[in-house]
Amino acid sequence: MTHTARRIGRTLALVLPVVLVLSGTLAVTLVPWADNSQSTILTASAENVSVRAKSRAPQDVLRDQLLTELQEKDPGIALTHLQLEVDRRPSLAKDCMSIARALGRAAVSHYGPARAQSFSRPVCDTSFASGVMHAG
């Protein structure tokens, strides 16, 4: 039995790597990006590799999240989340008014002036209402 197990082990040791290499090679050649006409995608991504991506300021990230939320849900929810974020991170307080004004302008473009004004709340010194007024 030991001889048979040793023989099977040797056979697998020789055959298995060959099978794995061949199946891996076939798998790589069958993917869409292996086509020569698509090769510019790979070389374009390799340009400027040493250039670091600019990190975005927290207030810019928050503004974009809240504008998306305004579009998907409603301005009231976005304003509530703005207030919660300012309460959670007081460093955002200096940018609260500009974010609320941006939300007001976006609400006017999405809902119209009358409906946008109905979402107004006393968040960041009523800057949302100011944004609605200047956009409308």
Sum this structure up briefly.
With 136 residues, this protein is mainly α. The protein contains 7 helices and no strands.
User: Shape, please?
Assistant: rod-shaped
> pLDDT below 50 for ≥5 consecutive residues: which ranges?
38-42
Order of SSEs, N→C? HHHHHHH
Q: How many β-strands, per DSSP?
A: 0
The average pLDDT is 78
How much of the residues is beta strand, in percent? under 5%
What's the total helix number?
A: 7
Kindly provide the radius of gyration, computed on alpha-carbon positions and rounded to a whole number of angstroms.
Answer: 29 Å
Main sheet record: none
Q: Percentage of helical residues?
A: over 70%
N/C terminus separation: 88 Å
Structural class of the helix and strand makeup?
Answer: mainly alpha
Secondary-structure blueprint:
Blueprint: H1 2-29, H2 39-45, H3 58-72, H4 75-88, H5 93-111, H6 113-117, H7 127-135
Could you explain how this protein is built, in words?
- The chain is mainly alpha-helical.
- Helices cover 71% and strands 0% of the residues.
- α3 (58-72) runs parallel beside α5, α4 packs antiparallel against α5 (93-111) and α5 (93-111) packs parallel to α7 (127-135).
- The chain is rod-shaped.
- It starts with a helix and ends with a helix.
- Mean pLDDT is 78; it is low at 38-42.
